[in-house]
Amino acid sequence: xDHPSQRPISSLSIPTSTLAALLHAGYETVQDLDAxxxxxxxxxxxxxxxxxxxxSSQRKTQSRAVPLTQPxxxxxxxxxxxxxxxxxxxxxxxxGGLPRRHVLELxxxxxxxxGVIAVGIVRAFLKDSKDEEVLFLDxxxxxxxxxxxxxxxxxxxxxxxxxxxxxxxxxxxxxHALPAFCxxxxxxxxxxxxxxxxxxxxxxxAKLALPAKxxxxxxxxxxxxxxxxxGVTVVVTTQLxxxxxxxxxxxxxxxxxxxxxxxxxxxxxxxxSAVSFRVLICPxxxxxxxxxxxxxx
Length: 297
Hints:
Elements: H1 16-24, H2 30-34, H3 38-42, H4 49-63, E1 82-83, H5 88-93, E2 98-99, E3 103-108, H6 114-128, E4 133-138, H7 145-156, E5 160-164, H8 168-184, E6 188-194, H9 198-202, H10 210-229, E7 233-245, E8 259-264, E9 276-285, E10 288-296
Parallel strand pairs: 3-7, 3-9, 4-5, 4-6, 6-7
Antiparallel strand pairs: 1-2, 7-8, 9-10
Keywords: ATP-binding, DNA damage, DNA repair, Nucleotide-binding, Nucleus
GO molecular function: ATP binding; crossover junction DNA endonuclease activity; four-way junction DNA binding
Protein name: DNA recombination and repair protein Rad51-like C-terminal domain-containing protein
């Protein structure tokens, strides 16, 4: 695996316009970027000062995060209770499992086994706990009730709540109702949000305004903050999207694009800081690939 500083800047979660400006200015790797401060970046006419300041602040935050090759045990206290994922490489990456009262986002291209891993986490959770409950929200109908029944088994079936919704209004109402649901079901200690990107993707044809999307994601973040505070562990699955870039790094179409990069469909701003992990799954062959861990500090 390449050293994190040698990663291309296209692997960073930054606005497309900023990425295009950086590539146009000659920045290629994360190391190139870290060698410049906000003022130096802003000297390029195509990079506005607010964008350079935000980028510099983001890099300073990420520089305190866990290196991609370092287990998450470096940021989670050894005494923290952990939840196994039933995926050996992922458990190793997380330093022995997902710390309880944390948020894990699994993001990957279509057909990546994100849902399989999420169901495996449910199975491990139910086995590890004797009375705690699971709330499983599927926004794309990718994990059926029968799949969850098989994962839970007869003894734990009554401890799993399964809901399906596919529209953005339904998601907004679900988030609004979460506190009341958890008050009514105080034993819920694991929340799975499967395919969280889908309601936003399905609404794209309706031209959802950016402020509206930002507001919904902020409400999701606040809900996750409250859930973690009351002891709930959260697992989110999302999808990577393909972005086409021209030779100079500017946004392109299928006709004008020179290369394509995979980026998360949802920016990490909806994830609570200090308690969230973002894992990007990158398949290489049919049964192999690699995963990158980001810790939001």
